[in-house]
Amino acid sequence: MRPEPSPYAERVLDLVERIPPGKVMSYGDVAEYLGEGGPRQVGSVLSIWGGGVPWWRVIRTDGTPPPGHESECLRRWREEGTPVKGARAQMSRARWDGTPL
């Protein structure tokens, strides 16, 4: 049985839920936006509790999906119109900074 999410995990999950379709944030972007934790902590939160949020919108800084989830991410990115080049999100066009669109 999974433990309940910590207050930090809840903040991560809330932010990930707000990333608009077609946009992405890196793990580090999420941590920086929240002003706490780091990329590894964000990844841990998503690996444990991220199934109910659009986890495919949180990726590596180089635009690559989480390891093992490449085909699912690419499929969802295509559905949402995320700017992609090859198997990577185009961070210069797809990165969301947390401001309302």
TrEMBL record:
This is Methylated-DNA-[protein]-cysteine S-methyltransferase DNA binding domain-containing protein. Keywords: DNA damage. Pfam families: DNA_binding_1. One of its GO terms (biological process) is DNA repair. CDD domains: ATase (cd06445). Residues 8-67 form the Methylated-DNA-[protein]-cysteine S-methyltransferase DNA binding domain. Gene3D superfamilies: Winged helix-like DNA-binding domain superfamily/Winged helix DNA-binding domain. PANTHER family: 6-O-METHYLGUANINE DNA METHYLTRANSFERASE, ALKYLTRANSFERASE-LIKE PROTEIN 1. InterPro entries: ATL_DNA_repair, MethylDNA_cys_MeTrfase_DNA-bd, MethylDNA_cys_MeTrfase_DNAb, WH-like_DNA-bd_sf. Transmembrane segments: none annotated. It comes from the Bacteria. GO terms for molecular function: catalytic activity. Residues 79-101 are annotated as: Disordered.
